[in-house]
Each structure stands twice: as structure tokens, then as C-alpha cells.
Design goal:
Layout (H helix, E strand, L loop, with lengths): L8 H24 L1 H27 L3 E5 L4 E6 L4 E3 L14 E4 L3 E5 L5 E2 L13 E9 L2 E9 L5 E6 L2
Antiparallel strand pairs: 1-2, 1-5, 2-3, 4-7, 5-6, 7-8, 8-9
């Protein structure tokens, strides 16, 4: 009768080698594509905030202004007299990822209670703007990567990726 003695040293070494190889592949991918991952995360953050803003404008029947600069963005709400900076939306502005820049800035537009993109100068009017393009760029190891977030006048959003 043979006793169960567990795993042999060779079996354990083979399993550890396999785990090490898989870990090296995974970490290598993460380090090589860190810039792209940051770029995608920033694009997801901005599009998610646009959807939240559209819901909030419809719920509260107010206009919200979005302002983008080369490395930050902020949201303000029209209180009838002036623009008031929003703090409770979740992300109210600040630095994006360190290597991501927003091209074509400064950019400002409003989303009204109907979900339309209107001019920031006249928050109570319904003067539509054309398509607003938020361009996120990142200098990666492989070249310039870019994500365009197209916000159409009637509220549609399209995200286009251009990775080199």
C-alpha cells in the first residue's frame, strides 16, 4: 500500500515557474501600456460625468456648464445669477493623468435640462452649439495616442480612439 505524501519538489517548481511566467507577461503588458490605460481611464471618467450631468440637468431642470483647459476640467451650475462650481458631482475638476493633455482648449459649453449642448454665454436660451470635440492626448512610448470624445448638439456622444 502506497502512502499519499503530497507534491514532489519538481511538481511545485513547475507550477511556480508557470505562475512566474504568467505574472511577467501580465506586468509587462501593464507597464508597456500604462499611458494608454491612463488615457482610457480619463476618457471614461469624462464620458461618465457627461452622462451624470445630463441626468442631473433633467432632474433639477437647470443648466450645467463644462469648462476644459489643457490639463483640467470643471463643472458649474447656473443658479439664476451666476455660475456656481459644483463639488458634489464626484469629480469637480483638477489634474488629469500626468501625461494626458486636453487639446483645443479652452473649451466651454453647457448642457441644458433637455440634454442639448448650448452656448455657455446664454444659459437660459436654447442656442445650440455645433459638435464639441474633447481631445485627450498622451505621449506614449509608441507615439502620440489620442481619444476624441464627440458631443453632438442633440446630446449624443461618440468616443473615437486613435492609438499608434
Amino acid at each position: 500500500m502506497k502512502k499519499n505524501r503530497g507534491f514532489t519538489l519538481i511538481e511545485l517548481m513547475v507550477v511556480m515557474a508557470f505562475i512566474g511566467i504568467m505574472l511577467a507577461i501580465t506586468l509587462g503588458y501593464g507597464f508597456r501600456n500604462k499611458d494608454r490605460i491612463n488615457l482610457r481611464n480619463d476618457a471614461n471618467e469624462i464620458t461618465g460625468q457627461i452622462y451624470k450631468i445630463k441626468q442631473r440637468t433633467a432632474r433639477e431642470n437647470k443648466t450645467i456648464r463644462m469648462t476644459f483647459t489643457s490639463n483640467s476640467y470643471s463643472y458649474s451650475i447656473w443658479d439664476g445669477l451666476a455660475w456656481k462650481l459644483l463639488d458634489e458631482i464626484g469629480y469637480h475638476g483638477g489634474e488629469t493623468a500626468s501625461n494626458v493633455s486636453i487639446a483645443g482648449t479652452p473649451l466651454a459649453f453647457c448642457i441644458n435640462s433637455r440634454g442639448l449642448v448650448v452656448k455657455p454665454d446664454a444659459p437660459n436660451q436654447f442656442e445650440l452649439l455645433g459638435t464639441q470635440i474633447i481631445k485627450l492626448r498622451s505621449e506614449g512610448d509608441k507615439g502620440l495616442d489620442e481619444i476624441n470624445i464627440n458631443l453632438y448638439p442633440y446630446g449624443g456622444i461618440k468616443v473615437e480612439k486613435d492609438f499608434k
